[in-house]
Amino acid sequence: xxxxxxxxxxxxxxxxxxxxxxxxxxxxxxxxxxxxxxxxxxxxxxxxxxxxxxxxxxxxxxxxxxxxxxxxxxxxxxxxxxxxxxxxxxxxxxxxxxxxxxxxxxxxxxxxxxxxxxxxxxxxxxxxxxxxxxxxxxxxxxxxxxxxxxxxxxxxxxxxxxxxxxxxxxxxxxxxxxxxxxxxxxxxxxxxxxxxxxxxxxxxxxxxxxxxxxxxxxxxxxxxxxxxxxxxxxxxxxxxxxxxxxxxxxxxxx
Length: 254
Fold this sequence. Notes:
Shape: elongated
Strand order of the largest sheet: 4-7-5-6
Helix content: 40-55%
Number of domains: 2
CATH architecture of the largest domain: 3-Layer(aba) Sandwich
Order of helices and strands: HHEHEHEHEEHHEHE
CATH topology of the largest domain: D-Maltodextrin-Binding Protein, domain 2
């Protein structure tokens, strides 16, 4: 539990740094300054002047709130929003939905000429989908220097804000601790037939595992596992966890 608490604290600090950095990424939502020589709204994301934060904060306070579309857990977002509002004095309007619904709404709104969201916070696949729909623009901010290098994409139009920790789960009434596989190759054993499951959308887990094993070897191994023992694919981690408890899926890999 201490590790999870530390991880959440790290993510909270990282997200606070990112949230104001990302305010400039939706040019339509930041009011242009009326003073001569100051950057227009469309240029604020790339503005690197010493008063960048002051201008972002002034624009946000003038609007009165910042709109965030997120798929993160409600409790996590509540803690983040409370910390953000306390620090900056800007109200956060949260719309929480699945990553798929966030992409759908963002695309529909953009095509209709609406730009209600200031910040999108969701998984990498959804973020990259919106980037390819040209919904973002590059931002330049000192906050990037505080982030893990892997969180910064080459195009810099969105920033990784999540560290996903995947663990396997098993039914202790059906599988003894000493029987657990020690490596993925062990899952080829026929005693795992009909006992394995994964979450349907954990592509980042699968990509990470295959990358660690080596792409060619990893893909072949999982094809062989499926051919030998099958693999139950279920949508939703809560559902998968309940199936582990009930014994329908004795061992969940993700």
